[in-house]
Amino acid sequence: MNSDCRLLVRGGASRIDEILDEVKYKIYEYNTRISDTGYYLKPVHKVYKRLSDGTLKIYEYYGRYYWRKQGNRLVYAGTEKPRSLPEPEPTPLEGLTLIRVGDDIIIECSVYDRYKDLFKGLEVERY
What we know:
Elements: E1 6-9, H1 12-34, E2 39-50, E3 56-70, E4 73-78, E5 97-101, E6 104-108, H2 109-115, E7 124-126
Antiparallel strand pairs: 1-6, 1-7, 2-3, 3-4, 3-5, 5-6
């Protein structure tokens, strides 16, 4: 996140979790359909960073992340859908990037503008 304009959405993490809970069944169904191909689809990639004051920041990237099963491990295969797989249903979170801090999220203004309908009714302030 390199933008000069960032927003803090209070309670935004809970809203994201609610939406993800609503679409998880589609992802589970898709992964069940493709399970014999050796691939697995994850809808989010998370990077965890603990700050010196103990605060945990979680960088979240929503999209389509394909993994290939190798023995008991999953190996990252990329964001491009392998040709042999059917097209998954889109989710309302695809393309969303944010930083989760507790129950709040930090999001670039330009990203917020594309996803603002997801955050209706929540308090938003300049960060």
